[in-house]
Specification:
Helix content: under 10%
Distance between the termini: 27 Å
Strand content: over 45%
Largest sheet: 10 strands, antiparallel
Number of strands: 26
Shape: globular
Number of helices: 2
Radius of gyration: 21 Å
Order of helices and strands: EEEEEEEEEEEEEEEEEEHEEEEEEEEH
Number of domains: 2
Amino acid sequence: MNRLSIRAGAALLAGSLLAIGGGMAVSAQPVPAQVVPAPVAAETTTTLPLFGAPLTVDITTAPGGAISAVTVDPADGLTASIVKPNKVKFVNEDGTARVLVSARHGGERVQARAGTLADITGPGGWSGDLFGTGVITTVGFEVAPAADGTPDIINITTSDATAEIGDVDHAVGDEAARAKVSIVFTNGIEQRSLSIRVTAASSDDSSSAKVSVSLSDVRGQRLPAEQVVGTHTWEGMLCDGTVASITYTVDAEGTISGVTATPSTADVDVDDDDVRVEFSDDERVRLRVKSSDDGAELRVAVDERIRCERTDPTVNTPIDESLDDRDDGDDRRGGEDRDDDDRDDEDRDDRDGQRGDRGGDDGDDDGGDGEGND
């Protein structure tokens, strides 16, 4: 299997980086043309602070987004308690730490959980090929306590000068406090966000703290109509490693025309602003153009349904499923946290509509519901 190595960017965190990626690419005109390499299974690296030292997690995902391999460093004292194509969890010997890797619908998340905020304080980072263009983007951050002792995220940086780094949002409740920040990246008509979240909770008899980095799926970016009008290409990888593509043209009214697909055996169905391409029964892509009420803005929503045969990933630790306590709480979602989802109402409606169109297909999308209920 071809694998994409991102260790060249390791200087950001003195040899340890966090990487999540592997999304399928859409190149657009009139954005300057780029040479887009053939998509490959993505190898990524994650670094999160845990007990005063960096924990490195190497992740490989296959076509379709399933996790195919996870290695942790240091591995001593860790045991895998869940090993599934959409979720891998590790626990330490005394049960004071858990590390979760999850993937679902094109989004990925890596999370470390321990007993106190001090256990997850320190530098972290992210690096990866966000849009399948061969360009590696890096992000750095640090988990730290605020003046009042609640979680904070500081020293946030990125190598992408066009990225939008949001303000760190803080919330404090009776028994829990959290800090979160989102970074939005764009490429032509595409958009992707990276969310960093730190939570600390305590009660009379227990405490816990979590740090997670979540990468969203690739979404269509709402832009002035003139920036969307033109010819675009979706490109991705099918289950057998074949590079697939769909080329189409959007006009000012949001109508799609001139649709071609490779391999040429694909079945193409065009209905004005809606294109459905079926490469096989288990490999389908839907493209839709959405227009604002006044027609001044357009965006292209892409729904990829690439379902490949899945096997449990490999890990570099012992496996003991009896250690799983099934107490994941809000760890159960791949991609983003529920309240970290920055989609607007129209995006939500689009996703709901796409799922409705898929009918009963969602039930077996990732071997379960993606929330640990396999």
